[in-house]
């Protein structure tokens, strides 16, 4: 049997996806189905004087219409799942429909249910809402100034929380030979999964059971939270995530909308569907990033970094979304170490309410914001001391023999070899030749730039104890059950909920390898609380390190039980058996063996069971990792900036990533490609823009520039393999590495290209206009 772990087999998910045969939530058709539409506030901040839904109720095809007042006392508010200890976090109530005040453009105001989606939307126009507009604040720093509009009575100065970490950096700055200070604006991004959010709810009044199909990255968390909002006992609520067309973090949160759909289905006794349109998705699905970062780095002239300090204002938007408090704190502040031995670090984060769409996780969630700071500061430092940026990185790397490495922010990096990744990158780039070419081109008036990003990230979330200690209101272990059928085929149930990442393929590879059976004989099931007992979902690149480890453990247990049957069948002691390539073999007796399939059949036919052993071959495992995983790597981008137009042309992108042992190189490459493209999106094109009235100016795909395939050269991927020392597979996550690494690599490259103009920094996205202006200003 060829090994399947480490093999680039094609994703089994893809045929159904690329032939249009997958079933997404919006594809679900049920008898008697009616359709919901949500009226959303056009104001960023306003008092609601009155809402009149009577005309809408009488409109053709309308079944029902509800306002926030209609729902009061009948449905709960939207909860937050990450409470930050020692931070004084304020979590003002977030009603499912606004009652007397709206706080962002997109805040839900009324729900209409009708016999078709079009009629439901038409009826929204018949709802009369009298708004009294209030002053608006969209910038988080301004929101903390005296006299600015207050979003929530419970949060003076609009501060949702103030959080600190690190070991103090005053000494490093007092003794520094060189200090680099800067302000970075990590711009707000809009996730734009290919499939917008959607929900279908069906209630059975006779049993009191509710089934809710929804676009979820974590159905069990949604079941738990929604059961609270709806007052439906958890065992009567089944949450199913059918095919989910991407999430990128935006389908983790518990939103008001899905709760409303379930509420309406229960009220009306008919199934109800709601699907966001793209415009709605822009304003009503959480956004990402949005930091104002005041940062400084202390160092010596010889290139040693001695300290890093950051004060950050992170926008929470109008309410605290489900996982939002953890993003600019744990996933950001604790990672300001980067890949370097920085002895002193200090970070202060203010989470601030503004009249904007709530923010939450977006691919990388906190880690891109941290990596951007570290990698830009390293480049600014290199420039200031006149040293090559690759050399400054190398000098400060945590050395390979220093792992496990305790950081000043309280984490323990598990394993790493950062210098080897950089070496591989420099070789792939042919770095000296690249610098020579840059010089040559500059002489011809052409501006080539090369930018690095040597990153480390925290993922594989995560040890439940640590998560609990930092305020996450849940566990972060995961579960797997393996059911072996009489013919030796295997069903795998995982508590994770992949939505594009490909674990139906890679988890099958883990099992096929462990049991020595064909990979086609393994089927992976996920995303249904009715099928899978419990799990915590897919995000934070945890699915493989945590969920995959649970699968590996369960497979080991299946083999243990199979060994009992095999020993009985072969009439030898268990210790006399080896298990290789799917066969139990009597040691030293080549002719005497049984296959895994023989054992599976025996376990079920059960006419000759070992004494005291129950029939069947099934095992479960619950895996709680002892540590996070810390994938790392070295990325480089080569750009050429057009002197006349300011346009940035991507010439090369080279990624060296280390995600421990690789299960499927093809899938890993795909994840790196997608991640890199998303990170470059932020660097060059993407950015949410609000005007001073809180209107989202980039509220459609005409205004919000997503990356397009034709903008990219072939992304070159390479790997080093430093196994995670603490999980049974030696794997680290890879789902976010590309996004985390790539944004600063591109910005560093553009700034490097513009060095002759004296340009030291440009805020993302680096639009041609900004780049062109920087060249004009530099020349002056
Ligand atoms: N893998 C592997 N070997 C490794 C590590 C991973 O073969 N050493 C494989 C995995 O088995 C899986 C894939 O790579 O098939 C990604 O796995 P993992 O790193 O565990 O990440 P998750 O599955 O937990 O995915 C989450 C991550 C996040 S946080 C975001 S956001 C994101 C992403 O993945 N959103 C995505 N990738 C996405 N890809 C798609 N298509 N759609 C999204 O919404």
Automatic annotation (TrEMBL):
Its cofactor is Mo-molybdopterin cytosine dinucleotide. The keyword Oxidoreductase applies. Residues 19-135 form the Aldehyde oxidase/xanthine dehydrogenase a/b hammerhead domain. SMART domains: Ald_Xan_dh_C (SM01008). It comes from the Bacteria. GO terms for molecular function: iron ion binding; oxidoreductase activity. Keywords: Molybdenum, Oxidoreductase. InterPro entries: Ald_Oxase/Xan_DH_a/b (IPR000674), Ald_Oxase/Xan_DH_a/b_sf (IPR036856), Ald_Oxase/xanthine_DH-like (IPR016208), AldOxase/xan_DH_MoCoBD1 (IPR008274), AldOxase/xan_DH_MoCoBD2 (IPR046867), AldOxase/xan_DH_Mopterin-bd_sf (IPR037165). The keyword Protease does not apply. This is Carbon monoxide dehydrogenase. It comes from Limnochorda pilosa.
């Amino acid at each position: 049997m060829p090994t399947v772990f480490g093999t680039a087999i094609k994703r089994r998910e893809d045929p159904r996806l690329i032939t249009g045969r997958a079933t997404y939530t919006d594809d679900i058709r049920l008898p008697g189905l009616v359709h919901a539409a949500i009226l959303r506030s056009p104001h960023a901040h306003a008092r609601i004087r009155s809402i009149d839904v009577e005309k809408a109720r009488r409109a053709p095809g309308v079944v029902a219409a509800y306002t926030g007042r209609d729902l009061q006392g009948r449905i709960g508010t939207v909860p937050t799942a990450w409470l930050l200890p020692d931070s004084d976090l304020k979590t003002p109530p977030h009603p499912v429909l606004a009652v007397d005040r709206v706080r962002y453009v997109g805040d839900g105001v009324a729900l209409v249910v009708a016999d078709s989606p079009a009629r439901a939307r038409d009826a929204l126009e018949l709802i009369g809402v009298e708004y009294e507009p209030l002053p608006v604040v969209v910038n988080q720093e301004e929101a903390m100034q005296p006299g600015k509009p207050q979003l929530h009575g419970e949060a003076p100065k609009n501060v949702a929380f103030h959080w600190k970490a690190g070991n103090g950096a005053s000494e490093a700055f007092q003794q520094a030979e060189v200090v680099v200070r800067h302000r970075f604006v990590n711009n707000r991004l809009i996730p734009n999964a290919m499939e917008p959010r959607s929900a279908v709810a069906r209630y059975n009044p006779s049993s009191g059971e509710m089934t809710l199909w929804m676009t979820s990255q974590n159905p069990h968390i949604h079941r738990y939270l929604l059961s609270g909002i709806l007052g439906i006992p958890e065992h009567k609520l089944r949450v199913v995530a059918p095919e989910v067309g991407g999430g990128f973090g935006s389908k983790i949160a518990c939103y008001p909308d899905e709760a409303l759909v379930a509420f309406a289905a229960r009220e009306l006794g008919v199934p109800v569907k709601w699907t966001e349109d793209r415009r709605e998705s822009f304003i009503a699905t959480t956004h990402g990033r949005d930091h104002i970062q005041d940062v400084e780095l202390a160092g010596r002239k010889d290139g040693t970094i001695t300290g890093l300090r950051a004060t950050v204002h992170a926008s929470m938007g109008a309410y605290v979304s489900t996982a939002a408090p953890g993003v600019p704190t744990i996933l950001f502040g604790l990672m300001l170490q980067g890949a370097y031995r920085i002895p002193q670090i200090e970070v202060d984060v203010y989470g601030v309410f503004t009249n904007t769409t709530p923010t939450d996780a977006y691919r990388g969630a906190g880690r891109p914001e941290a990596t951007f700071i570290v990698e830009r500061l390293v480049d600014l430092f290199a420039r200031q001391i006149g040293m090559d940026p690759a050399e400054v990185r190398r000098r400060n790397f945590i050395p390979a023999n220093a792992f496990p490495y305790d950081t000043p922010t309280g984490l323990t990096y598990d394993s790493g070899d950062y210098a080897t990744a950089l070496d591989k990158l420099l070789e792939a780039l042919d770095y000296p030749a690249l610098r020579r070419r840059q010089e040559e081109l500059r002489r011809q008036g052409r501006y080539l730039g090369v930018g690095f990003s040597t990153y480390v990230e925290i993922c594989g979330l995560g040890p439940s104890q640590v998560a609990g200690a930092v305020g996450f209101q849940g566990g972060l272990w995961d579960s797997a059950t393996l059911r072996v059928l009489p013919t030796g085929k295997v069903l795998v149930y995982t508590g994770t909920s992949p939505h594009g990442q490909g674990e139906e393929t890679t988890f099958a590879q883990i099992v096929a390898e462990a049991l020595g059976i064909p990979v086609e004989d393994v089927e992976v099931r996920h995303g249904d609380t009715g099928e899978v007992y419990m799990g915590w979902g897919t995000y934070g690149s945890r699915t493989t390190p945590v969920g995959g480890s649970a699968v590996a453990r369960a497979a080991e247990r299946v083999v243990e039980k199979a060994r009992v049957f095999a020993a009985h069948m072969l009439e030898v002691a268990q210790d006399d058996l080896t298990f290789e390539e799917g066969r139990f073999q009597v040691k030293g007796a080549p002719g005497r063996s049984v296959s895994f399939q023989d054992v599976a059949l025996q376990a079920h036919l059960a006419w000759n069971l070992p004494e005291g052993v129950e029939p069947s071959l099934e095992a479960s495992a619950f895996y709680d990792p002892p540590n996070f995983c810390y994938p790392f790597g070295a990325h480089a981008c080569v750009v050429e900036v057009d002197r006349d137009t300011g346009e940035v042309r991507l010439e090369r992108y080279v990624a060296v990533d280390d995600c421990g042992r690789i299960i499927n190189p093809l899938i890993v490459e795909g994840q790196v490609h997608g991640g890199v493209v998303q990170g470059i999106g932020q660097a060059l094109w993407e950015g949410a823009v609000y005007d001073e009235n809180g209107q989202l100016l980039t509220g459609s795909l005409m205004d919000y520039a997503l990356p397009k395939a034709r903008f990219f050269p072939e992304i070159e991927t390479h790997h080093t393999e430093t196994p995670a020392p603490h999980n049974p597979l030696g794997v680290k996550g890879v789902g976010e590495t590309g996004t985390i690494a790539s944004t600063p690599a591109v910005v560093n490259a553009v700034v490097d290209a513009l060095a002759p103009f004296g340009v030291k920094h440009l805020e993302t996205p680096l639009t041609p206009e900004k780049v062109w202006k920087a060249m004009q200003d530099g020349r002056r």
